[in-house]
């Protein structure tokens, strides 16, 4: 039987999948997981789960991320040409000119 192993590095941290072990029962799986996956890196705890008990949800089952458009978070979605972009560039030029003039006085 195959058992999937998830490792937590620090208290309060997430458990992340780190591999699997082959064992006939839960107790042996826990022992194998401790030896194979718990000793190599700092480990706070291990979860040992039968492979057939791990469920998967993929993009065909559900749409992840909701339906809210959050493209505004990415700079690539902004239009960097046109009147608005020219206005921003002109404003920056005006500010730079004013700063130079203040420095000359």
Automatic annotation (TrEMBL):
It comes from the Archaea. This is Phenylacetic acid degradation B. Residues 83-105 are annotated as: Disordered. NCBIfam families: paab_haloarch. Gene3D superfamilies: Phenylacetic acid degradation B. InterPro entries: PaaB, PaaB_sf. It comes from Natrialba asiatica (strain ATCC 700177 / DSM 12278 / JCM 9576 / FERM P-10747 / NBRC 102637 / 172P1).
